[in-house]
Amino acid sequence: MPLHAPDNQITPKEIYLNRRQLVQAMGIGTMAALLPAGSALATGDDDNKPTPKENITTYNNFYEFGTDKGDPAEQAQSLVTSPWYITVDGACDKPGKLTLDDFLSPHKPEERVYRMRCVEGWSMVVPWLGIPLGDILKRFSPTSQAKFVAFETLFAPDQMPGQKGNVLQWPYREGLRIDEAMHPLTLLATGLYGDKLPNQNGAPIRLVVPWKYGFKGIKSIVKITFAETQPPTSWNLYAPQEYGFYSNVNPKVDHPRWSQATERRLGEIFRRDTLMFNGYEDQVASLYSGMDLVKDF
Description:
With 297 residues, this protein is an alpha+beta fold. It has one domain (7-288): Oxidoreductase, molybdopterin-binding domain (Sulfite Oxidase, Chain A, domain 2, Alpha-Beta Complex), CATH 3.90.420. The chain has helices at 13-17, 19-25, 40-43, 53-58, 71-75, 100-104, 133-137, 178-182, 234-238, 281-284; strands at 85-90, 96-99, 110-117, 122-132, 148-153, 173-177, 187-192, 195-196, 206-208, 221-227, 262-265, 272-273. The strands form two sheets. Strands 3, 4, 7, 8, 9, 11 and 12 form a seven-stranded mixed β-sheet that branches. A five-stranded mixed β-sheet has the order 2-1-10-5-6. The longest helix is centred in the first third of the chain and has 7 residues, at 19-25. It starts with 12 loop residues before the first helix and ends in a 13-residue tail after the last helix. Mean pLDDT is 87; it is low at 1-45.
């Protein structure tokens, strides 16, 4: 989703600032770090080790608060997350408008450690706290006409200064096919690292779909709609040739401006091979049986 050079062409700020310490620390005991990103010694047993919280909460895409990675952490404290209301409507028998407490009750958030992959070429491993989206959606009794689920972010330019510009069409919108939304991996996240969700990460509630690129994880959700037809989505409206509706992690389909075959995990130096469906192929490939994942990207 970048409007600037992708991260795979830029030295990460944290590495640049600590380059001398890094060079001094590199000795015989760190030779594994010099191996190709896909090698066993390079990834080892840390393949699913959570990314440090500092990285997760200071390096973000949240264009409502600016286009630079550090903008959300600096600007998002203006977001008021209580009280919070979520409207659920569309093709369902029990539409409603709920507070966040109502939305969560009677569910208890559970921890799930998910790999996350950004279309720009960086990735992280996040210990989310959340509730399966399907468990929430069932409460509203979607009808047989509900083929998709659409989401909207809060529109409040006084709180979200990025919305005063025209980078995207506001409010931010996303969508899933209903079977994707009901899949047990799909999560409504309310926290990370055991704490409530920071504003810059999408407080108070955001979507997490771990086999899709990160821009599908709409933040600060205020509306969910059961739709009969495929809903418009923000990045697809902005550049349909670059950002498809499905946006599944597929290393065989390049972004028009860069390869998606490798990724750099935050906190690491070298790149690693990108996995099909971000490593969740066994769990979700059946959702796309018979589909052309090059055409339906």
